[in-house]
Amino acid sequence: MTNSGDGLLVITTTHDDEAKARALAADVVRARLAACAQVYRVRSVYWWDGEVQDAPEWRIDLKTRAGLADALTAFIGERHDYDTPEVVAVPVVAGSPAYLDWVRAETTER
Hints:
Layout: E1 8-15, H1 18-30, E2 36-48, E3 51-65, H2 69-79, E4 88-91, H3 97-105
Antiparallel strand pairs: 1-3, 1-4, 2-3
């Protein structure tokens, strides 16, 4: 493991439908805004419309370059049907050198 994750992020969003989540993930990867996406079921508890909501969702974790964060956020916003889609970024601080190099190689800096 190396600390050479500089400049890489994991950007997360969610969707209420598995097919829509998988389609969004594929569109992001196809656009080369992320090297890969992981889609998995989660249970979200959150405040919305004046009350606590408790709902199943599909989380999408996208591995990308920090320089693509704005473009990726805009891409998600244009294609998402939530009023306020979650888009949060977490820096990658360490990882397998080969994997981190692969993420850099498979994304297109704009």
